[in-house]
Amino acid sequence: MDYLEIEGGHKLQGRVNISGAKNSALPVIAASILSDKPFKITNLPNVVDIRTLLKLVDMLGGKVEHDNTTAIIDNSSMNSTKAVYEIVSQMRASILVLGPLLTRFKHCEVSLPGGCAIGQRPIDMHLKALEAMGAKIEIKGGYVQAEAPKGLQGTKIVFDKITVGGTENVIMAASMAKGVTTITNAAKEPEIVQLCELIQSAGVEITGVGTSELSITGTNGKPLAFQECKIIPDRIEAGTYLCAAAIANSEITLENVESNHIKAILDKLESMGCTIKIEENAIAIKGPKKLKPINITTSEYPGFPTDMQAQFMAIAAIAQGESIIEERLFENRFMHVSELNRLGADIWLKGSLAAVRGVKELNGADVMATDLRASSALVLGALVANGITNVRRIYHLDRGYDNLEGKLAKLGARIKRKKE
Ligand code: UD1
Known about the structure:
Number of helices: 14
Bound molecules: uridine-diphosphate-N-acetylglucosamine
Structural class: alpha/beta
Largest sheet: 4 strands, mixed
Number of strands: 24
């Protein structure tokens, strides 16, 4: 198994290119199922999750040509509607094929994604919405078995709680349904906007894009023909490199980044004492000598993203004073706490609140990654810890960070991938 060996205490400098957003690429790939024409996607991140979903499309009978950042998908001869456990269990986002398969083929079987380290993460809202659109759904043998012999029917969906994946599944299902589907309390993330724009590129009418009220007029069973799609920059990867500069008291520039998507992150970094300059498609950041403490509550977009909570906890660990971080989206998303404490951080947990008392220094140790973003928090801590830190179980990192060690090494970090 691979691990990262990081020698702390080296400053970063230079420019880093931000890859395409994993969380945008996944629904865009799932949406390819709605089309019976070849469809080209560019600016894909080179990460495991993307390869996993493309493999699923291939197993469903799609034709996939993929190099590192580009894929051409031709689903004209897709001949299976069963998304098997072996793939879905590797990645929860595979559930995104449910809406497209059901609306195009009128029946499908998709394995239940199962538990996830950061919390329960059920899919009840996805299923309830598809049932409201006329699907008959049963859970049998660990699979969601769904059918809608006459096709899905547009209707009014009201989500009890904001769900990114649920909103994406319904948008895709609605795009080939009969009539109009409205979604109230829809997610507004930039990834949702990209998915809506892709579907609009096929001539489907969608109103309210980027708001919590969406209305989608379906094609009544006619497959879609998309224009080529360039994946938006990854706002979480961008946020992670900004945190790297902040924690390492360094000056770096991010390229190919969309500053409008990360306002909440930039705002918190400025409050912690970072200097930020926004340029065209680029952001320059200078970390302060002494970081100030911060209070953070995670929430849905445009609020502070839960996917950046762990990284901010790492930088708060060496701030001058006490920070309070509240996690409101996922009940178990604090598994990095004990690992950061192994590096010498002083973090106390009570329910969904973490109190982070800034310490003067961190010290290298052996630590274990527990989920994708928790892993990057450990890498951030390691950048400034005295001596060597070994971050183990980095398969979590490989799911969502494109060449993290290569990009950090180019910025001057001492970081090596090694085998156990
Ligand atoms: C997506 C992101 C993930 C991010 C999360 C929140 C992708 C591939 N993943 O995950 O990185 O952390 O949004 O911004 O884009 N919930 C239910 N029932 C449901 C669906 C969700 O109770 O049917 C709950 C979840 O357990 C969670 C909350 O709703 O507490 C938000 O989850 P959701 O927005 O659906 O997250 P994902 O789409 O899984």
